[in-house]
Amino acid sequence: MDLISGEKLEKMTSMEKIRLILDKVKNGKIVVLESGLTSDEEVRLIEMTMTEIRVDEFSGIEIESYPSKKGGSFLDRIFGRSLKGRMTVIGPANQIRTIEKDKYQISTKVSVGD
Amino acid sequence: MGIFSSLKESLGSWINRIFKKKRAKIGLYGPPNAGKTTLANRILHDWSGDESFGEASPIPHETRRAMRKEGVVINANGSSIELDIVDTPGMATKVDFKEFMAFGLSEGESKKRAKEATEGVIEAIKWLDDLDGVLLVMDSTEDPYTQVNVVVIGNMEARKLPLLIVANKMDLPDASPARIKAAFPQHAMVPISALEGSNIDNLYQAIAAHFG
Fold it and tell me: Which of A47, A62, A66 lies at the smallest CB-CB distance from B94?
C-alpha cells in the first residue's frame, strides 16, 4: 500500500497523478492519496482506466472518497479556485471492495495474493 | 468566421431570453441498472408519443451508446421547457466480463459487451462537456455513496451546472429515498418509480423549475 502526501500531489500535473495512480494500481498496489483528486481529475482517471481495461489482466479500479468540501475560503471563491478533493483510496477492482461507506467512514475489504 | 458564429450564438441566446423560450440539453447519468433508460423511455412516452430510447434490461451495461432525442417539450407549473435528452451509458470504474457471464451470456458475448461498456463509459464522460444540466438517476434500494454518484455530483458542482437527483425504484420494498437525501442534502431530490410512473408529475415539475 502506498500513501502519497498532499505535498507531493500538489507538485504534480493532473496527467502525472493519473499515470502514477494507474501504474501503481495495475501493479496490484493500493494507493491512498492524502489530499485526493479534483472532481475533474477523478473523471479523467475513470476515463483513462476504461481505456486500459484488458480481459483477464485488468478489470478496472475501486475508488472511494468523500464529496468535495463545499464553499472554500472567501479568497478561493473570489479567485475561482476549484474545490479541493479529500482523502481518497484507490485499488485494483479485483482486490479491494467497499463494505460500507457513509458520511464519515469508508470500510473496505482488501484481498492479498491470488 | 469564429466571431460571426459567436455573434450569431449571442444573438440567438438574447432572442431566446427576450421571448422566454426555455431550452436545455440534459443528460441522464448514473450507475448501471439505476433505471436511466426506463426513465428516458417514460419521459418520451409521456411527452412525445410512443417513441423509445432503447431496451431496458436487468443485465448491466445494456445501454452502451449515448442516445439523444431533441425537442421534447415538457409542460409543468404553467410553463413549458424544450429538452434535448441524452440517455448515457452507465458510469462505472470497473468492467469485468465475468459479471455478464453470470447472467447467462457466452464468454464471447460477455467479452464483446465488456469492451463496448468501457467505450460507453468514455462516451458518457465526454458528454459531460456538452450539457446544460444533469438528471442523476440513483437506485433507491442501493447505497447512494458510490463513487460514480460522488464524481458526477462533484463535476456538476465544479461546472456550476444544475443537477437534479432522481431516487428511482421507490416502488421496491427496500427503497429508501431518505437515505439518498441524507447523503446529498445540498441537492434537490425527487423519488419516483420510472417503471410504474409513480410520482412522475412531481419530477416533471422539478425539471421545469430546475432547468427552465
Answer: A62
Residue from A14, A40, A43 to probe the interface with B (highest B Cβ count within 10 Å): A43
Q: What Rg value do the Cα atoms of chain A yield, rounded?
A: 15
For residue B209, what are the CA distances in angstroms to B30, B39, B111, B172, B205? Answer: 21, 18, 43, 27, 6
Question: Per the CATH hierarchy, to which homologous superfamily does domain B21-211 belong?
Answer: P-loop containing nucleotide triphosphate hydrolases (3.40.50.300)
Query: Structure pTM?
Result: 0.85
Q: What is the ipTM of this complex?
A: 0.83
Domain ranges of chain B: 21-211
* pLDDT single digits (tens) A45-88: 999 999 999 988 899 999 988 765 555 555 555 554 555 567 89
CA–CA separation, B157 and B63 (whole Å): 26
Question: Is the Cβ–Cβ distance between A68 and A88 less than 8 Å?
Answer: no
Q: Is A111 on the interface with B (CB under 8 A)?
A: no
Q: A82-114 burial, b if ≥16 CB within 10 A, otherwise e?
A: ebebbebbbbbbbbbebeebeeeebeeeeeeee
Q: For residue range B39-81, what is the model confidence (pLDDT) as tens digits?
A: 999 999 999 876 788 888 888 898 888 999 999 999 987 888 9
Q: For testing the chain A interface, which of B98, B99, B111, B145 should be mutated: the one with the most A CBs within 10 Å?
A: B145
Chain A residues near residue B96 by CB distance under 8 angstroms = 59-60, 93-94
Decide if B76 contacts B63 (C-beta within 8 A). no
